């Protein structure tokens, strides 16, 4: 049997670690490109992910470098069957502090890696990590992929929509290449980025510290466990049709921040103490995925209930203390 080979950009980040591990576990060959950047959280966590991947799968190749560096990317796509492009600067709030860097990494980086993929005869698929943030506040909920996504609330959201539009336009040149753009809805789970709400809240509750809740807690989010996202990435890699096509990967069951806090409290075994703070610039009022397209075309559906998912975060936070 021939081994399938993939380039996974951002492969030592949160989602990248899980996707790389799943590909390696099913016997595929994985090459990772990651710059181990210090944003939006410390490099040490990426080194740990890289070490854990190498320990479990000695065959993994990990290259250090930027997705904006065409000369660095070119040799890494040689001979691959496709690319999973997860590298990017994540995070709505920090994107206001450095919008130019977000645009460079997320938009230029996508164009650079996709150009390299298109120049590689063996590469048949380019999976793009996009985001629910492309919908902003103006899209009717639940958000469907064909709804307009033209009023981003942050430079991060704009950079993700920009990356999608660049990929859409570039796919006209090579229409046979499969280019699923996966709009992830707030992903959580073990190894989650430390600045994200679920990790922060869990850490603080386990230390009996109060947590800051944005606004009155009515803001809603569609939380999706990283194992469901990983299955969705593999389903798109293996089964998405030719051409550019966006897919929502979400739970389809949004909950309020207040409900999230109660559920984390239950998982942590504590009664949460909360402080209310202003909603930061760029955060949308609600995210809510219409997941009919991913169900129909990728045979994908989320499986991890929030209660069970939060237990995996608790176990991870406790074991990494
Ligand atoms: N986690 C979520 O809730 C979520 C939601 C929607 C979309 N996304 C997208 O999914 C992807 C992965 O997100 P994540 O949560 O795993 O974030 P992450 O920050 O853990 O992973 C991103 C990885 O990209 C790497 N990277 C950053 N700049 C790079 C560059 N110039 N060259 C090479 N590598 C670079 C980082 O070092 C990191 O390892 C990102 O594109 C993000 O925008 C994430």
Q: Outline of this structure?
A:
The chain has helices spanning 14-25, 43-56, 70-77, 99-118, 155-171, 197-206, 226-239, 257-268, 292-298, 306-319, and strands spanning 5-9, 29-34, 61-64, 82-85, 125-131, 178-184, 187-188, 211-214, 220-221, 224-225, 243-249, 255-256, 274-277.
Overview of the molecule:
Helix 1 (14-25) packs parallel to helix 2 (43-56), helix 6 packs across helix 10 and helix 8 crosses helix 10. The protein is globular and about 55 Å long. The strands form four sheets. It has a seven-stranded parallel sheet, sandwiched between helices. Strand 5, helix 5 (155-171) and strand 6 form a beta-alpha-beta unit. The model has no long low-confidence stretch (mean pLDDT 97). It has helices at residues 14-25, 43-56, 70-77, 99-118, 155-171, 197-206, 226-239, 257-268, 292-298, 306-319; strands at residues 5-9, 29-34, 61-64, 82-85, 125-131, 178-184, 187-188, 211-214, 220-221, 224-225, 243-249, 255-256, 274-277. It has a domain at 5-185 and 224-251 and 289-302: NAD(P)-binding Rossmann-like Domain (Rossmann fold), CATH 3.40.50.720. With 321 residues, it is of the alpha/beta class. The chain binds nicotinamide-adenine-dinucleotide (NAD). Nicotinamide-adenine-dinucleotide binds at residues 9-10, 12-16, 33-37, 46, 66-68, 86-90, 105, 109, 129, 131, 184, 186-187, 193.
């Amino acid at each position: 049997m021939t081994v399938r080979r993939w380039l996974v950009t951002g492969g030592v980040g949160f989602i990248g670690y899980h996707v790389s591990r799943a590909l390696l576990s099913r016997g595929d060959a994985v090459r990772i490109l990651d710059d181990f950047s210090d944003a939006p959280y410390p490099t040490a966590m990426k080194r740990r992910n890289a070490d854990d991947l190498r320990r479990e799968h000695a065959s993994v190749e990990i290259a250090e470098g930027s997705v904006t560096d065409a000369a660095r990317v070119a040799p890494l796509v040689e001979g691959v069957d496709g690319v999973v492009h997860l590298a990017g600067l994540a995070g709505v709030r920090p994107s206001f502090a450095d919008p130019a860097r977000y645009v460079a990494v997320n938009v230029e980086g996508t164009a650079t890696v996709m150009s390299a993929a298109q120049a590689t005869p063996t590469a048949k698929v380019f999976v793009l990590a996009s985001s629910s943030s492309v919908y902003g506040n103006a899209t009717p909920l639940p958000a469907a992929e064909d709804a307009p996504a033209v009023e981003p609330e942050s430079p991060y959201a704009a950079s993700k929509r920009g990356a999608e539009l660049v990929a859409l336009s570039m796919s006209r040149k090579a229409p046979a290449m499969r280019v699923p753009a996966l709009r992830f809805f707030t992903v959580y789970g073990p190894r989650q980025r430390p600045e994200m709400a679920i990790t922060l809240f869990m850490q603080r509750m386990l230390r009996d510290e109060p947590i800051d809740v944005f606004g009155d807690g009515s803001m809603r989010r569609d939380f999706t466990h990283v194992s469901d996202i990983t299955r969705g990435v593999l389903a798109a890699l293996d089964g998405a049709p030719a051409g550019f096509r966006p897919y929502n990967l979400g739970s389809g069951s949004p909950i309020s921040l207040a409900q999230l806090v109660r559920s984390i409290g239950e998982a942590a075994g504590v009664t949460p103490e909360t402080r209310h703070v202003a909603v930061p610039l760029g955060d949308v009022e609600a995210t809510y995925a219409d997941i009919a397209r991913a169900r129909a075309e990728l045979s994908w559906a989320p499986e991890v209930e929030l209660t069970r998912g939060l237990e995996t975060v608790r176990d991870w936070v406790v074991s990494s203390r």
